[in-house]
């Protein structure tokens, strides 16, 4: 007799996560956004994550649990009318999450957002490509940063990546509502497709031959490719990039947490494109 399947850990952690045995890929690289094999609704908790979801008309809501104080805070922001909440005590939410989850009296179940495909990303878009970054805290922080810099898409693989629920969503602090995620089966093929569409693919590598701030980005699309901490970019990913670039650090510590590296890289890329556009406009006026 087969032993019963262990329950999925709350909060979206990769540790101990099981997948449906009958789950099948959703065909090609034109996937919906996260979650790809999540058996049930997306779980969002914490004020910022829940408030941004409630404010997003594209997010389909299923169930909201809230304490009286947390609901009053939502009401003050005009966000308490989209769904009838279940008024609960904090312990009722505690029992649904891991012990270290800071839910601030809010727990929301919702459907996953539909995302773009590689073909629908704007041709002049700014894209982040994640090469097997598996820590949900890091990916959540990257999503939050991507939303702040108006990134057009985050491209990652359907496997070897955390689901956009629980811990990741909390770390993203509402960023999931604003940073579209594109899931692909094969990262190298996805990079090839971006290259065919004219994207400059720049792999971030501490041993890159030139600093990122010296890279010529042009007017077309830019894809910044980040690897996992410790392992960095995989060999095939490196070979698929147009160039490798580094972030120069003047201090004694030469490497950064991947989410911090993403923030700096996005700032440099945005600034370079702004300066390039301003220079082109100035030349046009002369």
UniProtKB/TrEMBL annotation:
Q: Which regions are flagged for Basic and acidic residues bias? A: 24-40
Family annotation (SUPFAM superfamilies) = alpha/beta knot, L30e-like
Region feature (Disordered): 1-40
Could you tell me which Gene3D superfamilies the record lists for this protein?
3.30.1330.30, 3.40.1280.10
* Molecular function terms, GO-annotated: RNA binding; RNA methyltransferase activity
Q: Which GO terms describe its cellular component?
A: cytosol
According to its UniProt entry, one GO biological process term is: methylation
Q: Which UniProt keywords apply?
A: Methyltransferase, Transferase
Domain called RNA 2-O ribose methyltransferase substrate binding: residue spans: 43-116
Keyword Kinase assigned: no
**Pfam families per the record?**
SpoU_methylase, SpoU_sub_bind
Q: Which InterPro entries match?
A: Alpha/beta_knot_MTases, Ribosomal_eL30-like_sf, rRNA_MeTrfase_TrmH, SpoU_MeTrfase, SpoU_subst-bd, tRNA_m1G_MTases_N
Name used for this protein in its record: 23S rRNA (Guanosine(2251)-2'-O)-methyltransferase RlmB
Organism this protein belongs to: Hansschlegelia plantiphila
